[in-house]
Amino acid sequence: MKKEISYIDLLTNQEFKSWVIAPNFEKNLFWEKQLKDNPKLQEEAKKAKELILRLNFDKQVLKDSEKSLLLEQIIKSERKHQFEELNTDFKQPNHFKISLLKIAATITIILVAVYFLRDKITTPHQISEVKDTLAYIVKSTPKGIKTNLSLPDGSKVKVNADSEIRFPDSYLHTDNRTVYLRGEAFFDVQRNEHKPFKVFTEKLEIEVLGTSFDVKSYPEFNKEYIAVATGKVEVKSATQKVILLPGEIGIIDGDEIKVSQFDREKILSWKDGILYYKNENFDEVIRKLELWYGVDFEISGARKGLTHFSGKYDNKPLATVLEGLSFAAGFKYKILSDSKVKINF
Fold first, then answer.
1. pTM more than 0.70
2. 37 has pLDDT over 90
3. Which of 175, 246, 250, 316 is deepest in the core (most CB within 10 A)?
């Protein structure tokens, strides 16, 4: 019969300790699969993590040798308790509780002793476990710049111009995989049924397990939207919750989420480097050009000619776009610098 793994076994497993202290994508994949395939191991892993994190509570207070010694003492203490339990009547109703209290007391005494006997002593309020002090990564893109990111769980993100995204540097000790967004981004999410992926914007909370979708949330606009490319997405506003399927878009108008089908080329082309606008008014087109090329427009004169415009440009320079747009809208333009364009009707 195969021996069940206890948290003592995990404490002496170098690969497990490495995962807890310095997680990365590959380690996450391996250990999350192990825990998923072995539900009994999950509780043991939780105990082991807590002990390892306590030993790692302040990298400047404990040396590696001291951490190893402390861990050995904890393991010896626990094995001693396990040996004593062989001569204990397990039918006693409070035995399990007493055993846990013994273990907790032993660990606490050892931690307090090491903590106060060190030359470099800190006050108790300065000690915090890693899981309570998440470090966040913030990535911002200026106008005219897009960027590709990989999140700690392996999910991929394409961030549009004039946007900001914030996320923890690790999802190891979190219940959810959380991202905060201002602007626009396309997410291709790694599936993980045990940790939902959540995106928070000014007005929306979006939750998925594994899918791909586009989110647009610029503060200067009153409307936000989420467009689903693959999978299923749950979207919440202040007053409503809806489920979106592939090909559906949820547009926030006030607190209401309006669901409809969307033009994939119009909504998603930006992530492939294609500037696309279809039946949009002049102000909407100018806004897209400002984001795409990182320029400001100075516009003068009375507008004339067409009121709505369509165009598709695959990695073309600004001058090429303005040539077509100026012909349709009836204006003259001058590119004054890399960041300034003058338009005169």
1. no
2. no
3. 250
